[in-house]
Amino acid sequence: MICKLQYIAISKIYFVYILLCFTTFLSIKAQAQNTENEEVKRLQRAIFIFNIAQQVQWPNPVEEPTFKIGVLGPERTILDLQALSQKRKINGKPVEIIRFQVVKNVKDIQLLYVNHKYNYSIDYILSKISGKNILLIGEDYNFNSSMINMVNVGDSFEYEINSNRIDNENFSIASSLKTYAITSSEKWKQLYKKTERSLTKVQKENEERKTIIRDKEQEIQYQQNKITNQLEELDYKEREIDDKREEINKRNKEIEHLFTQSEIQQKKYQEKIHIERELENNIQEQITFIKKQDERIKSGKEQIKKQNEFLQQQDAQIIAQEEILIHQNSEIKSQKKVNILLASLVLIILAASLFVYRAYIGKKRLNAALEKKNKAIHQQSLELESKNKELEQFAYIASHDLQEPLNTISSFIGLIAEDYGDSFDEVGKESLTFIKDASIRMKKLIDALLEYSRLGTRKEYVAIDSTVILKELLTDLKSSIDKTKATIKSNNLPIIKGSEIELRLLFQNLISNAIKFRHKDASPEIEISCVKKNDPKGKSNGFWEFSVRDNGIGIPKQHRERIFAIFQRLHSREEYQGTGIGLAHCKKIVESHGGKIWLDSEEGAGSTFYFTIPA
Q: What is the pTM of this model?
């Protein structure tokens, strides 16, 4: 009867177990399908983010070894992006994924992803990342709220691009990315509603499956309770049978114990007698062993006493030797100090001797070099004195010997023109005019050359007010200024030290050139200024830097050095009159005063001449 009941109970349990397994299989299958769909969406999201980043060009590419993507909030997408970053690169760089919990910590990344479900304000995010070279990709936000916005549609994603935000941040979007983007808010709303409907449908199906599973679980629970009650009845009956079996076994064990106990007692008595005898023998052996040990201990104590006496003697000897060693160490230390002092003194004497010797050798070499340079300077001074005499002789010849025949030629040409002018035809008269003009031009060139040779010979420098010189020059040049309607401006010019005649000629040449070399349809505008500058080497009190700026025709870059050479002209005499020696005069005047002259010019846009005078 008991076996039959057990068989029925086991059959019912097996049936319930099969039913439970089947229900669990359906639940797991539904959950697995949902999980599989979710994993596909997550993978699609990560691929979308990577593909969008690959088709965007950043305005200011950062020279970083990795491309950094930030994920805002506790988003599981960071795991999918990290897994995908192991397989793919962006713009040829490895990808690094960074999580941010708050918006204010977002920095040093190229792309930021945020999901609407975490309730981050898209406008606040945009204000914080503006101008930081960061592309923002949002998901499920309103139309045109982010830079690029994604929406979940089925197992894939759609996206829209806010062109205004992209252009404001200077990002460039590939045309292929724009082609497939959603361009209208209505379509975006339809996709968003479609997504919501799909989500509602999936949630409804999940609720129905949960209801079915819940009903099955209740039915299984009822069957389990029923089986449990039956099993409790079987257990009660089996416990009664087990109690009877235990009582019978207990009686059998008592009988066996009594029989065994009698035999054990007999064996124990015999064993006790044998053990007592063995104990007596052991005690006798131990007593003998203890006596021998006492004798050994006594002899050992005597040996230890002798060794202690020997050790005390050795300790006394060691103390005496330590005192001797301490005394010797002190003597050695004092000797070392003396040796170190002697060695230091010797080294100092050697170093001082070497320094004195090197100074002597250096001084001797310098004296020899100075003597050699003095001889060279003396020789150069003799050569310069000879050249100065030659220049003076040349100036004398130019002023007397060259000008005398030139004056004779000019006078005779004038007489011929007056007395025999009517005898010549038009060609002859024109030739006489050319000869007369050439002789006048020759006289001007000789005068200019003579003036050039005299420049720099005046070494008596006095204090000169630059403002006074400029006012006097403007008075002398009034006719040219009025004729060309020129305007000349100047700031407070300093008092400088130099030759008044030469500095006046310097300003006159620069201002005259600025008036002369002008555009035909424009009035000259001239600005004269000066600033004080320090000597970068600190060897002098600095210098005054003058500048003369005009709005004239300018000078080509390839001719800027050529114009300072004597008799160099960039234009024909028909275009602009002059001898071509004015800027050569300026260069010689500035250099004779210890300064420099240069220019900054742009062809057609005017020139600025700079020159310096030591302060």
A: 0.35
